[in-house]
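Notes to self after the Tuesday call (sharing in case useful).
The group wants a holo model before anyone commits to mutagenesis around the pocket. I volunteered. Ligand is D-glutamic acid. Logging inputs and output together so the record is complete.
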Amino acid sequence: MKDARTIGVFDSGFGGLTVLRALVERMPQARFVFAGDTARLPYGSKSRRTVARYAAESAQFLVRAQGAESLVIACNTASALALDAIQDAVPVPVLGVIEPGAQAARAATATGDVLVMATDATVQSHAYRAACSGQGLRSLEKACPLLVPLVEEGWTEHAVTEEVVRIYLNELRGEAEAKGMLADTLVLGCTHYPLLRPVIERVIEQMPRDRSAIAMRVIDSAESTAEAAVRLFDADGRAQAGAAGAETEIRCFATDSVEKFERLGSRFLGRPVGKVELIDLGG
Ligand code: DGL
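Result:
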């Protein structure tokens, strides 16, 4: 596939494969290179400075060593804390997941009040609050630090996970109601949470409706990010012709735990990830 457009996709781990999946569906003729910084995951508990350094190194690998002509930062934490630093580190266009997520929230909400579940670092950055506010929305963000390890463990359909989700959502709904919000949309602001979507939707279904009795829509930014990537990186449609299929070229790189990436990654990508290559980006 010599003439294929090369798109780099980056995440702190393999959760970002949910974004890659949405990209492949829309641009099956592109060549994708994915880097998961599994050795240094989680980013969600780290400082801005550290996340920026790690993410810039991965971005440089994708551009310099793998020839990426554009980058999608699938990691919410890196998008929230380090989008500018990544853009400064590479000479190609860079797209994060926060703005597309806020746009999807605006399209979904009727009340204009939005809830966001994310990592600690993403919540502390208030990147979603800023992006939602830019869309004219009120938002309330909640850090849910236990969810990434549960997904990493493969406990996506587990009673413990369901209970943890219930506790977080009860707290979030309680805080929102105390602020007088009528939230009708929940943004999954972390790469790993789409894997918990069935559990999250089930818990929401079982919760008493708030005083306005409105239903809650769950959205993740993978789809809207992929749509934004098509508009920005494939305006001439070169990568879009044809259907998504096994022939789309995808190369995956990880900084650690290649076997785990190969084993669990298929759940995120929706098909086998193939042979994952080990890379060393430094400490
Ligand atoms: N990729 C991160 C995110 O979307 C979750 C995993 C981590 O904390 O590194 O925020």
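Two things stood out.
The longest helix spans residues 159-178.
The CA atoms of residues 232 and 241 lie 16 Å apart.
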